[in-house]
Amino acid sequence: MKTAGDILSALFDERFMKKAQGYSELFNSWADITAKNGIAAAADHSRIKELDRGVLLVEIDHPGWKQILQTKQSKLLNDFRRRFPEQDISGISLMLGCGSPSDAAQTEEKTEIEAAEEPPEQTVVVQQDLRGYDAIKDEAFRETLIKLGQNIAAGEKTAAKTGKNRRQI
Predict the structure, then answer these.
(1) Gap between the Cα atoms of 154 and 158, Å rounded
(2) Under a CB-based contact definition with an 8 Å cutoff, are residues 97 and 48 in contact?
(3) How far is CA 28 from CA 59, 121, 145, in A?
(4) What is the SS3 assignment for 142?
(5) What is the pLDDT of residue 163?
(6) Which residues of the chain are in CATH 3.30.300.180 domains?
(7) Is the pTM above the cut of 0.70?
């Protein structure tokens, strides 16, 4: 026989899972909804970043794509409202970001290839203090932060070596 606590726990977990699944579907629907509105290519240059107080925040990698999305903004909003009525989406905010996730992956690949092709005498070696990173439990996130710190330090070291400050780079 199950206790009341077991039943409430199962009910809460089920409700939580449904809500999480709803958010997942919302974020994954961007490509479908842009395609439905005749701007499928926009999905490669933008992504849903967040749903904040009913406003869907969409990050775009170039001002041109922002203009294109603005022309379809009301149709996109109506589609999201119809598809996800439980989310109470009241608006879409378009913001210029640093690039799409695919751009970031391509940039990282290019950086690794360029580093491999660079002659040894020009290779920048960066020593980084890794204290504090051990407190981060998510291994992938920890490694990403360490790489980011190394890239920043390498850029600063290269800039100092060439006599350029960060604003000139």
Answers:
(1) 6
(2) no
(3) 14, 45, 25
(4) helix
(5) 63
(6) 4-96
(7) no
Residues in CB range of 80: below 8 A, 6 or more apart = 26, 29, 33, 56, 87, 89, 92
pLDDT in tens, 100-135: 445 544 544 554 555 455 444 444 444 445 556 666
**Pair type for strands 55-60 and 91-96:** parallel
Q: Encoding tokens for residue 137?
A: 């439990």
Q: What is the domain class of 4-96 according to CATH?
A: alpha beta
Any idea what DSSP says for residue 167? Answer: T
Query: Which H/E stretch holds residue 2?
Result: none
Distances (CA, A) of 22 to 25, 36, 69, 74, 83: 5, 20, 24, 22, 10
